[in-house]
Design goal:
366 residues, mainly alpha, transmembrane helix, membrane, EpsG family protein
């Protein structure tokens, strides 16, 4: 369990150190000192990325879906290329097939998927005013639980974060490619396509037309596939329930409400505000849908796609609430305390925490 706390302690400590550096720069730091700060910040993000992915890639029998992925890889190993594509989501099946032909195991797959997720988190965090605080908010659930448990969806969320960054930078073609890759790793990512399309298109009639076309095309493309039937049979028809789904949905709702309240104070473009406004509204909508849904697992897994709202809002929180820089320390400590509480409760009291605790590594010989 110590390894998880080290993973949280690093960005939490740097969030407070980063505040002090920011205060110093506002008092008249030189451009050379500021450039050194940027360089050091970038270097530390690389260190964090490597540290996290070593933890994820070297884990052994850690994560809720560990044995399910072991079985999936074993099946793909016996498949030809086309069979592998339909064994699971297309992108994941293709990657797994190539990996098995190279004689590589589940550790490499874990490293690839968690690497995509963590890189997406870091790229989003760097857009905020307090990047290390944003990363701290991502650690307890998105990086530890999702990144080290729901491998396919972790990669999908990473590609979604790439798409959001590309769309904000007005590279719509690149964003579309990332969304295709996200959907290839987990079919649930398809739900993000209309949200980002609506955010980018200014004309309301065209927005409605695009949403309708995407919804119909997505349904007909997926409805006949084996993967769609697996999702329908496994989650919807079976009425699967996820313990703690309400708590995880509410973890998105809080930041979503804050964003809708403070969005006009954020120093970002109108397009960026529109993207996060739609994600915020969707997060609140899932809280309404949850008690009405026949399967809380479906709503819970969809909620994961909107969880980056936590990263974004916490990264802007002190300034968004008009807290003076010299007093931001208390707010940052409050956010860190919140993240510590979430991680403490999850690691010790979650129904399926035993799949993550204790942490075993292939290096330990266990």
């Amino acid at each position: 369990m110590l390894i998880y706390w080290l993973l949280l302690a690093l960005p939490a400590f740097l969030a407070l150190v980063g505040l002090r550096r920011q205060e110093a720069s506002t008092r008249g730091g030189t451009s050379r000192a500021q450039s050194n700060t940027v360089f050091i910040g970038g270097f530390l993000m690389v260190v964090f990325w490597v540290f996290y992915n070593l933890i994820s890639g070297l884990r052994y029998q850690v994560g809720g879906d560990w044995f399910a992925y072991i079985n999936m890889i074993d099946r793909v190993r016996e498949d030809n290329f086309l069979e592998a594509l339909f064994e699971t989501d297309v992108g994941f099946g293709m990657t797994t097939w190539v990996m098995t032909r190279l004689g590589l195991g589940i550790g490499v797959m874990n490293f690839i998927c968690s690497g995509i997720l963590s890189l997406g988190v870091l790229r989003l965090a760097r857009r905020t005013q307090h990047p290390w605080l944003a990363i701290t908010a991502a650690v307890p659930y998105l990086l530890i639980v999702v990144g080290m448990g729901y491998v396919r969806q972790a990669a999908a969320i990473g590609f979604i974060l790439f798409a959001i960054n590309a769309l904000i930078d007005k590279r719509s073609g690149v964003a579309f490619v990332y969304l295709v890759m996200a959907t290839a790793f987990h079919v649930s990512a398809l739900i993000m396509v209309p949200f980002l399309a609506v955010a980018y298109v200014r004309n309301l009639p065209w927005t409605i037309v695009i949403m309708f076309i995407l919804a119909v095309a997505g349904y007909f493309l997926l409805s006949g596939t084996e993967r769609f039937e697996q999702v329908q049979d496994g989650y919807i028809d079976a009425g699967y329930a996820s313990s703690g789904a309400l708590v995880r949905i509410l973890m998105n709702v809080g930041p979503a409400i804050v964003f809708l309240y403070v969005k006009d104070r954020l120093p970002v473009s109108l397009l960026e505000k529109k993207i996060w406004m739609l994600i915020s509204m969707a997060s609140i909508g899932l809280a309404v849908i949850l008690p009405l849904s026949p399967s809380s697992t479906v709503v819970d897994r969809l909620g994961l796609l909107f969880s980056p709202i936590q990263i974004y809002v916490f990264g802007y929180l002190p300034q968004a609430l008009n807290i003076p820089l010299r007093r931001s320390g208390l707010m940052i400590m409050a956010v860190v305390a919140y993240c510590v509480t979430i991680q403490l409760i999850w690691l010790n009291f979650a129904d399926n925490a035993g799949a993550w605790v204790p942490y075993y590594s292939v290096l330990s010989g266990t």
